[in-house]
Amino acid sequence: MPNQMPFADKLSKIGEQAYFFRSFFRNIFKRGFEWEELFRQCYIIGFRSTGICALTGFILGIVLTIQSAPTLKDFGAESYIPGMVSVSIVREIGPVIIALICAGKVASSIGAELGSMNVTEQIDAMEVSGANPVQFLVVTRVLACIFMIPLLTIFADAMALIGGYLATALSVGMSAQLYFTKAVSILDYTDVFPAVIKTLFFGFAIGFVGCYKGFTSNKGTESVGLAANSAVVTASVWVIIIDAIVVQITNSVVYN
Questions:
Q1: Does residue 53 contact residue 160 with C-beta atoms inside 8 Å?
Q2: 213-249, pLDDT tens digit by residue?
Q3: 169 vs 69: CA distance, rounded Å
Q4: Domain ranges of the chain
């Protein structure tokens, strides 16, 4: 009997998440969509995250180039550095690292914000006043994540190429025109398209997990911190899981 309770609790949690997922999709298409709140969340999630994403991408490009250049020099393959950096960043490293950065910054922020609103009964007050808290608080934040995470990833990828160029120019002496020509020409739609699709799922996972953890947090001051911490951990795990699934699908469908 004691072993059945945890399993029952897990089933209950799955049911809550499925119901929350259903409520999210139902409220996307309801009348009175909060466009102003959506744009505000895009600004908060996107513009305010450009700094950390730009710095992360720039350092990734430098580190990847510095780590790879000596090995390629030994084989006389310095000309392959731009292509190696661009394919590695665009296809895999850029989307995953930026998604993990956003899981720590965005998911925790959403979880803490909605958890605080839940503790102070602001969400209950919205329901009593006739407002739609799911449409106003959840739908706008999840859609903002879906829209902005891909844009942040593209921006970080561009900064990574700039960082890779600076490191290559210092170590090999390659010109900017040659570097960026080689970096862009080697990219194919099979590199770019799966990466963009992947970031859309990353954005949904980050936004949905942050909203769910905050929206369903327990009453109590300590639940705010727990909601933020749980949102970061869960969103990061889902980013890794989604990446593994997309990589398997891409390898079986596109590259075979």
A1: no
A2: 988 887 667 778 888 889 999 999 999 999 999 988 8
A3: 11
A4: 40-253
| Dihedral sign (CA 140, 146, 147, 153) | positive
Amino acid code (one letter) for 172: V
- Give the C-alpha separation, 65 to 220, whole Å: 48
SS3 61: helix
Q: How far apart are the first and last CA of the chain?
A: 49
C-beta separation of 61 from 160 below 8 A: yes
- The 10s digit of each residue's pLDDT in 90-135 is 999 999 999 999 999 999 999 999 888 888 888 888 888 878 888 8
Residue 218 DSSP label:
P
Q: Of 155, 146, 138, whose CA–CA distance to 205 is shortest?
A: 146
- Other CB atoms within a 10 A radius of the CB of residue 25 amount to 10
Candidates 184, 157, 45; CA nearest to 92 is: 157
Q: CA 245 → CA 6, 17, 194, 241, distances in Å?
A: 28, 21, 11, 6
| Locus of tokens 């007050």 | 125
- The whole-model pTM stands at 0.88
- State the residue for tokens 């699934």: 245
**Residues of the chain by 3-state class (helix, strand, coil), percent to 5:** 85, 0, 15
Alpha-carbon gap, residue 83 to 180, rounded angstroms:
9
Q: Compute CA distances 54 → 57, 59, 143, 239, whole Å.
A: 5, 9, 22, 20
Tally of CA atoms within 13 A in the half-sphere of 31 that contains its CB: 0
Residue-wise burial string across 38-62, b where 16 or more C-beta atoms lie within 10 A, e elsewhere: beebbebbbeebeebbbebbbebbb
> What is the distance of C-alpha 85 from the center of its chain?
21
